[in-house]
Each structure stands twice: as structure tokens, then as C-alpha cells.
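Researcher: Go.
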Amino acid sequence: MNLLNAIPELDGRNYGKWYQKLEITLAMANIDLAINTPQPQEPEKPMRAQNETDAAFAARQKKYDEEKTLYDIEMASWADSNRKCLMIIKGSISDPIRMAITACPTAAEYLQKIKSQFTGSSKAYAATLAEQLITKKYTGGAIIDHILEMSHMAKATDNGHAFARTVSCPACFQVPPKGVCDFSHQLQHLSRKLGH
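Model: Structure:
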């Protein structure tokens, strides 16, 4: 399955991208039933009531047999999907993260535990943002578009404060390449002109 290669390994800094690729892969492989549908519930076997007639009990027994057959079919599909989803999810997570997450019987529960580790955490978001800002490179086109994109990323958390706390120390040790000072002055001038 070449689709499996599209899922990046979850390493703690790429939850959003990992989840998006995982979701697409499971859907394209047509095995996402256990993620999108709750586990089927087994129907309750009828017990004969004290004054129930044979005909009434036989009718309830027949209905139960039909429901049980349908349940067995649905459960077989769901269990197969759940097993495959768990294998793919666990196989796409780095070892330290996988060992930190307790086992769950369903893929949906396992995904929920992973999500709780990475969403809502401003530090994780700030780290992801910092990585994007530090590694983002100008790839051509209008320089103003690149500058505005970088500016929006920097303002994305806490008006830039979370980013500053995360990046300030590592960034201060990086030596700027030749010409950055001139570029910085031009950028400040452009920023004042645009009113940012």
C-alpha cells in the first residue's frame, strides 16, 4: 500500500499533518469504519416471560435471530476495521510516543488519547509554529507574499508572545547570513509603509 508511505511519523511536532494524512489514508484504504462508527451493540437475548404464549415468544426469538445475524455481520466488519486501524495508527507513531500512550481496545479511543496529548497545548502549537518559521524558506515569487505569510505565522499565537518565548533563545545563537541586516532595514521600512 503506497498510501501508508504518505503518513508522516508522529513525532510530537506534527500532529495536525499526521492526523490529516492518517485520516485520508484510512478513508482511501476503505478501512475507516471503526474510526467513524461506534462499535455495534449485541442485541439482548430474549427471556421467556412467565405468561407469554409460544407464538409470542417464537416471534420475539425470530426477531432476535435476525438482529443477531445482522449484528454478527456488522461486528465482523467493524472488528476487522478496528484491528487494521490500530495497526496503522501504532505503526505511524514514534516509539517514545507510542510507549507513553496506554493501550485501548478501539482505534477511536486510541486516537482520542493521542489527540489529548497534542491539542490544546500551547507549547506544542508554539513549537510547531517555531519550527515552521525557522525552517521556512523563500521559494520565489513576490517577496511581500512571503513576508506577510511569515508575519501571520508569528502573530498566530498569543500575538507572537508564545513564539518569542519558544524561539528567542535558540534564535539568538544563530548568526544571520550576510545581507540580512540590509534586508531587515528594508523589511522594517516596508512594514511601516504597510502599517504593520
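Model: The chain has a mean pLDDT of 79.
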